Amino acid sequence: MKRLTLILLLFSFLEARAQQGQMAGFVVANATDQKMQLLVDGKNLIPTGIESGTATSGIPLTLGSHQIEVSIPAKSQELRPAKAALTIALGTCPILVAYVEEAVDPTTRQVKKALRVVQLAQKPQKERFITTTMSLVSPPQPVSVSLNGTPVSLTYLKPQVSEGRRFVIADGPNQLEDAEYSEKCSQFCLVFKGANNKLRSILVPDMIYTW
Fold it and tell me: pTM of this prediction?
């Protein structure tokens, strides 16, 4: 009954939005080590939250400008919510990624953490098998992994493009992803620090959702 109530509430919200104008969508990925809350124009669209290491499918919104806010309830005393402006237009589907940025205070030498939101630079296509890997590991440092068996060093927030039907990324003996694509497409692989500082990753399709 509770699940049915949530579905009906979301349907009512989307129906009201649809009556106001055309809709497109966006995607949110949670590259933090805790469950995350998402507010869009002050409304909580996903009451159950977004689990660590996961991404939503397309979330429909009316065309125009919106205000996004993400927060981590479990760390509300440590991390302030992060806000971002979002523009929704036909033929687009922005991907927003929430992550924790760490920096060392030059005076106190203490590590300070801040919740951030970054919008990915997208190039959706259906002609090749493309995966764009990006490190969100902070403090910024080179991250050594293997991509399809080849050792590479990922630079903080710098995309690294690879091509192939099969995509495998590993951190030493720890395999992060092993995906074989059935259709030509573009994907993002986001590498971040999970619990106990272990590397984790999220695969996020770079595609356009329609309603």
Answer: 0.85
